[in-house]
């Protein structure tokens, strides 16, 4: 249950990226800089935290031991996740992008059979292939139906476009794929701060290439976009990502609980709606919007309840890095 509440907190901070990216787009900022600047700021911010905690050496060791794995899966988990989300701000309001991105909940569950996890039983450590948690999947589909209701009014008025949908689908697949693969690669040897820093560093080649393209196309970013990108890096890139990675690390040995944590991302839609209402003045009068919110919030609560009823809790008996627990208190 603790990991679920941490996931809820992460979704609150994640929502800031959708709102601020839309704000930058409305103000004329180029989407390339919205993405690249976030990670350029994240590396020194996370680097200082990891250095203060005296945990930098394990990060360099892991990066040197498996550089190709880090490069590939960090590019998926951070690059091919965030660049499409920034570009989608051109085609749709922030809350609509956040709603479409919730496809990642179902994608994460469907990816479970591609990965292995280690549990501790009477015969010692056992390596098992993940399974799709059916009850959690059904609840996630209900949550997606709620998100569909929230989008209905916008669809009727022609908001969004097929380009935006394609970009959101790419992001929704890349994020859980990169995150879960890096959990498998690290195998508990790095805490959430360390893994986030390592992935940020490993994704820099992608962002450097994209920045060159952005400079060639539109020139450099404005001062306002730099400031807003720093806030995105702090709130969404550092706080939200570390919270979410910490929550998924806590649940990594139990597919149903991991699915419950990932399902908390659906609350990003609610938080993004409220953010756009406050900052951009959108209206929240649609009955479909409110009914959809009820389904989304109810789904998160039901997922948390189901995760508490799951027997075993094998992950609690696993070796766990003390630093992971400390950062989540």
UniProtKB/TrEMBL annotation:
InterPro entries membership: EmrE, EmrE-like
Subcellular location: Endomembrane system
A Pfam family matched in the record: EmrE
UniProt main location, coarse: membrane
Keyword Membrane applies: yes
Bilayer disposition of the protein: Multi-pass membrane protein
Spans through the membrane: 31-51, 71-95, 101-120, 132-152, 158-177, 197-216, 228-247, 259-281, 287-306
Keyword annotations of the record: Membrane, Transmembrane, Transmembrane helix
Protein name as catalogued: Multidrug resistance efflux transporter family protein
């Amino acid at each position: 249950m603790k990991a679920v509440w941490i996931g809820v907190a992460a979704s609150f901070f994640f929502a800031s990226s959708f709102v601020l990216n839309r704000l930058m787009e409305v103000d004329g900022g180029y989407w390339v800089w919205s993405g690249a600047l976030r990670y350029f700021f994240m590396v020194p911010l996370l680097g200082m935290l990891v250095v203060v905690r005296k945990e930098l050496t394990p990060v360099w060791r892991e990066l040197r031991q498996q550089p190709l794995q880090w490069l590939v899966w960090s590019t998926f988990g951070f690059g091919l996740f965030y660049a499409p989300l920034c570009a989608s701000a051109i085609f749709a309001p922030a809350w609509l992008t956040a709603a479409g991105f919730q496809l990642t909940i179902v994608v994460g569950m469907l990816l479970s059979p591609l990965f292995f996890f280690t549990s501790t039983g009477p015969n010692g450590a056992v390596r098992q292939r993940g399974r799709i948690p059916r009850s959690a999947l059904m609840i996630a589909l209900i949550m997606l139906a709620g998100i569909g209701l929230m989008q209905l009014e916008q669809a009727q008025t022609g908001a969004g476009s097929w380009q935006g949908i394609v970009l959101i689908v790419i992001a929704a697949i890349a994020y859980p794929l990169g995150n879960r693969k890096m959990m498998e690669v690290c195998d508990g040897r790095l805490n959430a701060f360390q893994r986030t820093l390592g992935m940020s560093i490993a994704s820099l080649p992608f962002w450097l290439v994209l920045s060159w393209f952005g400079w060639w196309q539109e020139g450099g970013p404005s001062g306002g976009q730099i400031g807003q990108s720093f806030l995105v890096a702090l709130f969404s890139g550092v706080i939200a990502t570390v919270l979410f990675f910490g929550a998924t690390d806590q649940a990594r040995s139990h597919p149903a609980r991991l699915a419950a944590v990932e399902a908390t991302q659906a609350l990003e839609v609610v938080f993004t709606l409220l953010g756009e209402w406050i900052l951009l003045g959108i209206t929240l009068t649609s009955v479909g919007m409110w009914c959809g919110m009820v389904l989304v919030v109810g789904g998160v609560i039901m997922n948390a309840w189901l995760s508490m009823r799951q027997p075993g809790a094998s992950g609690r008996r696993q070796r766990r890095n003390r630093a992971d627990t400390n950062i989540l208190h």
